[in-house]
TrEMBL record, chain A:
Domain named SUF system FeS cluster assembly SufBD core: residues: 99-329
NCBIfam families attached to this UniProt entry: sufD (TIGR01981)
Database matches in SUPFAM superfamilies: Stabilizer of iron transporter SufD
A Pfam family: SUFBD_core
Biological processes per GO annotation: iron-sulfur cluster assembly
Recorded family membership: Belongs to the iron-sulfur cluster assembly SufBD family.
Protein name in the entry: FeS assembly protein SufD
From TrEMBL, chain B:
Protein name: FeS cluster formation protein
GO annotation (BP), single: iron-sulfur cluster assembly
Residues in the signal sequence: none
PANTHER family xrefs: FES CLUSTER ASSEMBLY PROTEIN SUF (PTHR30508), UPF0051 PROTEIN ABCI8, CHLOROPLASTIC-RELATED (PTHR30508:SF1)
SUPFAM superfamilies in UniProt: Stabilizer of iron transporter SufD
SUF system FeS cluster assembly SufBD N-terminal domain segment(s): 133-202
SUF system FeS cluster assembly SufBD core domain residues: 205-439
């Protein structure tokens, strides 16, 4: 889509990829036995072009064609997760990438197919060891068929000399549901794109995300909900905090195509700004080619509410402590949606550490 | 149903669609060359700096590409737009001196009557030249200047030279450059310090020549503590060839001054309306934009407020109504460039019968502009599913001490609301028209009475027999 004002904080066109080397560590951790018929394996070369051709959609740009084609052609990791009809995979599939000196590059392609009436949950965690300038470029494709539910949680907490590019696409069929939780805490440069195609009657996609920008971090987020089917539903809820010299661009696209009768879409972005040196840009776009829909978007930006701060400080909390509490309160509803305590704690601790270490 | 709708639209445009025989005293050839520019400038007896300015602008125009980010402008054949048409009349300050057919057109549009009843001054532009300009004597005595740009260029050359195309330089975009090269007509208003002009001034622009362009330049300076309401109206009859409107409006609002700029634009449906409007506001000054976009084939219009002084304020209230074959790309831009500046944006758009309404806006806060407040609200109403409505507000914040809120909504008229009104004995079409009128009410209540009535009439007729 041609934009009036293309806001760029990351020069993607001129970004130079590092040398692509193998990722030798084990990243697929499945603790329990999987139900019969479920396929869960590491991706091997050449497999997806044949089987998952239908996941290619021309409307999908991801974070940039250069990045998505790198992930499609030169991946060094990734999974294939297939859930047969009516099968519910109870335990979450855990995928953990911990980039270190020997394995600083992750280029992964993940393909998730949920047959009719099936259900599954995936957690993907990206970390990098201290002082390693890691590079992650990912492409996750989800195909959720009729009445299926896919929950996917992405936690990105790589160090601030790392680069993160992540493209995600979901194609959701009738009454299918894809629920994303995106926790963006790390990487010096981070660009992520989530595109959801609600293809049929009552397709649903929900996206909850938090981001924390401190230091000189650059964050580029683009979330799209493309309503094609009637009665399709989408929700975007984003909460962010920016401090120090952090820069952020948020683009939220709520796109009602012709035929998306009686669809509903809500898009919200709230950002708390803690320092005068931050930059926060937003384009919450609402595109509509169908009259009988309900679309809403809201955005707000500003400092921490003074009354809240004053109240907490009058109760004996220090300013920094009080601010931390207010930020946490804003993040908490989204963090609480992560279904596993261990990850909830990881995220809470990380947020706390960063807020307390910073000059705020 | 479809047939009836067309019928009504034709009747509706009645008074706008009266075509006069195309008589003119001077007409430049089609297309653009430096020779034509020099000729226009000579014909207008302009100072040399203006001729040079025009030539420089033409150079910029030729070097800039046609913008591709918004509307499809491929239907615009620049080589066939006649840039300068001088009507067969001299400018007068007595209505009786205006030639009969031109006078008749404006009378049908209600211009002189409005002047008698509720306006402090009126200017009327027919094709490229102002044909009538008048202002109440008591305002003249207070030092208020209200005249056409050509006269201003000769009589107030220093002021014009200091401000002309400083806010909108020709290298801003292709059509600003075109304007710089071929501008003609428009109004010049100067309100001295402390003068309160309590009744509105109005300029009306009418384009009669087929395949012509209108490039009027409006320059308004409201000095410290002064107050002005300026109204701009536009219309043109329907011809088969495309017409182009690429005017410029430059507004200077000084300390503690207040300017309200209202526009009701009802160009015919073959018009490319590529107007540029910009205001710069000093300390504690206020700019208020009231903007109604109803006509034209394609509109790309984003009035911009630059809040340069501490405590400056801007308010934008806009309504856009896009129907068959129309692509109306409108919005507003606000730059908070000083501390404690305040802006509010309230935009409503309606699209029906295949019309495409597009809200495109920019809200920018510079690093030093702490303590700013802004609210943005965009609402869109779709009356059928052949139409389209898009909202793309860009928000750029470069400091933390601000309070920004943005909201947008899109939808159709709710069945419950229609059902309720119908249960009260109102028929369906009237119920829908009532709801639409309620939707645009925040705009209509800001307009002077006769404009509010005109707007309501427009909405009535536009809707009748066309939805359901």
């Amino acid at each position: 889509m041609d934009r009036w004002d293309k806001m760029k904080i990351i020069d993607k066109e001129n970004f130079i990829f590092p040398n692509i080397i193998d990722y030798k560590k084990d990243y697929l951790k499945s603790e329990t036995k999987l139900p019969e018929g479920v396929v869960l394996e590491k991706i091997t070369k050449g497999i997806n072009e044949i089987i998952f051709d239908y996941l290619n959609t021309k409307e999908f740009q991801g974070v940039g064609e250069k990045f998505t084609s790198l992930a499609e052609e030169s991946y060094n990791s990734g999974i294939i997760f297939y859930i047969p009809k009516d099968v519910k995979v109870e335990s979450p599939i855990k995928i953990e990438f911990d980039m270190d000196e020997e394995n600083p590059v992750v280029i992964n392609q993940n393909i998730i197919v949920a047959e009719k009436g099936s259900e599954g949950t995936i957690i993907m965690d990206y970390t990098s060891s201290e002082k390693v300038g890691a590079f992650h470029n990912g492409l996750t494709k989800i195909y959720a068929k009729e009445n299926s539910i896919i929950n996917i949680i992405k936690v990105q907490r790589m160090n601030d000399i790392s680069h993160n590019f992540d493209s995600n696409i979901a194609i959701v069929k009738g009454q299918g549901q894809v629920n994303w939780i995106s926790i963006e805490l790390g990487s010096g440069i981070s660009s992520s794109n989530y595109s959801n195609f609600l293809e049929a009657e009552a397709s649903e996609a929900n996206l909850s995300s938090i981001y924390l920008g401190d230091g000189k971090r650059k964050i580029d987020l683009e979330y799209s909900m493309i309503h094609k089917g009637p009665r399709s539903i989408s929700n975007i809820e984003t909460k962010g905090v920016l401090m120090d010299h952090a820069k952020k661009v948020f683009k939220g696209n709520l796109d009602f195509k012709k035929g998306a009768r009686l669809s509903k879409g809500i898009e919200e972005e709230y950002v708390i700004l803690l320092d005068p040196t931050v930059k926060s840009d937003s384009i919450p776009a609402l595109l509509c080619h169908e009259d009988d829909v309900e679309g809403e978007h809201a955005a707000s930006a500003g400092q921490i509410n003074e009354n809240k701060l004053f109240y907490l400080m009058s109760r004996g909390l220090e300013e920094r402590e009080a601010k931390k509490l207010i930020v946490e309160a804003s993040f908490r509803p989204i963090i609480d949606r992560i279904p596993y305590e261990i990850y909830r704690n990881i995220v809470v601790d990380e947020v706390e550490r960063r807020l307390m270490d910073g000059k705020n | 149903m479809e047939r009836r709708k067309t019928y009504i639209e034709d009747v509706d445009r009645g008074i706008y669609d009266i075509k006069n025989k195309f008589t003119y005293r001077y007409k430049s050839d089609k297309g653009l060359t430096p020779e034509i520019i020099i000729e226009i400038s000579k014909e207008k007896d302009e100072p040399k700096w203006m001729t040079d300015f025009r030539l420089k602008s033409l150079e910029i125009y030729s070097s800039k590409p046609v913008p591709t980010w918004g509307a499809d402008l491929s239907g615009l054949d620049m080589d066939n737009i006649i840039t300068y048409v001088r009507p067969d009349a001299d400018m007068g300050d007595s209505w009786d001196d205006v030639p009969e057919d031109i006078k008749k057109t404006f009378e049908l549009l209600g211009i002189p009557q409005a002047e008698r009843e509720s306006l402090a001054g009126v200017g009327a532009q027919y094709d490229s030249e102002i044909v009538y300009h008048n202002i109440k004597q008591e305002l003249v005595d207070q030092g208020v200047i209200y005249t056409d740009m050509e006269t201003a260029l000769h009589q107030y050359e220093d002021i014009v030279r200091e401000h002309f195309m400083q806010l909108i330089p020709p290298n801003d975009h292709k059509f600003a450059a075109l304007h710089g090269a071929v501008w003609s007509g428009g109004s010049f208003v100067y309100v001295p310090e402390g003068v309160n002009v309590d009744i509105p001034l109005q300029s009306y622009f009418r384009l009669n020549a087929p395949g012509a362009g209108q490039f009027e330049h409006t320059l308004i300076i409201v000095e410290k503590g002064a107050n002005l309401h300026f109204i701009e109206g536009c219309s043109a009859p329907q011809y088969r060839v495309t017409n182009l409107h690429a005017g410029c409006v430059e507004l200077y609002v000084r300390e503690n001054a207040r300017l309200r700029y209202s526009t009701i634009e009802n160009w015919s449906r073959n018009m490319y309306n590529l107007n540029t409007k910009r205001a710069i506001v000093d300390k504690n000054g206020t700019i208020e934009w009231i903007s109604g976009s109803f006509g034209s084939k394609v509109t790309m219009l984003y009035p911009m407020s630059i809040l340069k002084g501490e405590g400056a304020k801007s308010e934008f209230t806009g309504v856009t109504f896009a129907s068959t074959g129309q692509y109306l790309d409108t919005g507003t831009k606000v730059v908070h460039a000083a501390p404690h500046t305040i802006s509010s944006i309230n935009s409503k758009s309606i699209s029906k019968n295949g019309g495409h309404a597009f809200y495109r806006g920019l809200l920018k806060v510079t690093p030093d502009a702490y303590g700013c407040k802004s609210t943005v609200s965009c609402e869109s109403l779709m009356l059928d599913n052949e139409s389209a409505s898009d909202t793309v507000p860009v928000i750029k914040l470069d400091n933390d001490n601000i309070d920004i809120g943005h909201e947008a909504k899109i939808g159709r008229i709710s069945d419950e609301a229609i059902f309720y009104l119908m249960s009260r004995g109102i028929n369906e079409e009237e119920a829908k028209a009532m709801i639409v009128r309620g939707f645009v009410e925040p705009i209509t209540k800001e307009l002077p009475l006769e404009y509010a009535v005109e707007l309501n009439n427009l909405i009535n007729i536009e809707l009748e027999g066309s939805i359901g």
